[in-house]
């Protein structure tokens, strides 16, 4: 069934004559639209048209070709696919690394181990199958090595003071010295976890000295190490143990504390210093921090006050009798 043709009329100047012409507008435009949509659905001109399938605002194929920057999908496809493949490879590689870290196949952490001077320390490891060869290193230098075809062999200054357990792979170092501090690691096909051990050698802590002074009604307590001790001072921690009846306030330094003079001066306060291996304490009675005359007056007042209260109660009861 043919659709009616549109009619357009015009009037010539001066003549008054009218002429009209007919043209099949809608039908022809509909066919062109179908042809354009077919090309769009095939994907050949998708980037050039930029949304032709939405209808009224679409461009024709010729208009798209005349648009600056127009690139057919057939030409843009390979570069887009290459970019997508690179991103995919990066994400995939990151996922594999995370999986290995989670399964302990790779370890970037260094475990800190503390040992005391002239004592021993053991570096523990784990394996997923029996050992056939082991090499322990300090930095890049060998400490000890062994395989199932030979005996254990120690190197450098570790001779006669290291013990290698060939079953567990653990390494024990005796008679530690400060010069033994370094990073240690095991190399073996039987070990998945490449954990490194950072060894810190610490000297025993001396007993601290506790001093106190009275200033403006406050007793200042200071805990100090008087000896020439300089081994890993950054590891030393200070703490205070105060009775529940005394309120200790922290000073400007961890080694300082404050107590008010009005507190119970018969109580004892303890200073504690520690590091990862050692702990030392010292104490002081607060009454020793106050001049003797003030202490004597305070004790006299504490002795007289109960007697005075008792006398007043006695007088009240005696005078109140009929």
TrEMBL record:
The chain crosses the membrane at residues 299-319. It comes from the Eukaryota. GO terms for molecular function: signaling receptor binding. The keyword NADP does not apply. GO terms for cellular component: cell surface; membrane. InterPro entries: CD2/SLAM_rcpt (IPR015631), Ig-like_dom_sf (IPR036179), Ig-like_fold (IPR013783). Residues 18-38 have a biased composition (Basic residues). Coiled coil: none annotated. Residues 1-61 are annotated as: Disordered. It is found in: Membrane. Keywords: Glycoprotein, Membrane, Signal, Transmembrane, Transmembrane helix. This is Lymphocyte function-associated antigen 3.
């Amino acid at each position: 069934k043919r659709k009616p043709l549109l009619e357009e009329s015009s009037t010539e100047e001066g003549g008054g004559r009218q002429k009209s012409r007919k043209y099949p507008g809608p039908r022809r435009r509909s066919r062109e639209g179908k042809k354009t949509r077919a090309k769009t659905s095939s994907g050949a001109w998708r980037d050039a048209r930029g949304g032709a399938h939405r209808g009224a605002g679409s461009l024709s194929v010729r208009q798209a070709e005349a648009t600056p920057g127009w690139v057919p999908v057939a030409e843009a496809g390979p570069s887009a696919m290459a970019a997508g493949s690179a991103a995919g490879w990066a994400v995939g590689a990151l996922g594999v690394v995370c999986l290995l870290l989670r399964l302990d196949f790779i370890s970037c952490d260094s475990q800190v181990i503390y040992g005391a001077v002239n004592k021993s320390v053991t570096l523990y490891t784990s394996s997923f199958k029996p050992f056939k060869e082991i090499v322990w290193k300090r930095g890049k230098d060998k400490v000890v090595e062994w395989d199932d075809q030979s005996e254990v062999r120690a190197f450098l200054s570790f001779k006669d003071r290291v013990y290698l357990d060939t079953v567990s792979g653990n390494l024990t170092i005796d008679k530690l010295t400060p010069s033994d501090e370094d990073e240690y690691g095991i190399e073996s096909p039987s070990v998945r976890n490449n954990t490194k051990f950072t060894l810190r050698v610490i000297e025993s802590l001396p007993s601290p000295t506790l001093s106190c002074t009275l200033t403006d009604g406050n007793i200042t307590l200071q805990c100090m190490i008087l000896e020439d001790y300089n081994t890993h001072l950054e590891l030393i921690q200070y703490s205070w143990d105060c009775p529940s009846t005394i309120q200790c306030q922290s000073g400007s330094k961890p080694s300082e504390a404050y107590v008010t003079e009005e507190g119970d001066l018969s109580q004892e306060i303890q200073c504690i210093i520690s590091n990862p291996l050692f702990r030392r304490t010292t104490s002081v009675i607060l009454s020793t921090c106050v001049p003797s005359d003030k202490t004597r007056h305070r004790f006299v007042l504490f002795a007289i006050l109960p007697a005075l209260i008792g006398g007043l109660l006695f007088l009240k009861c005696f005078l109140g009798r009929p």
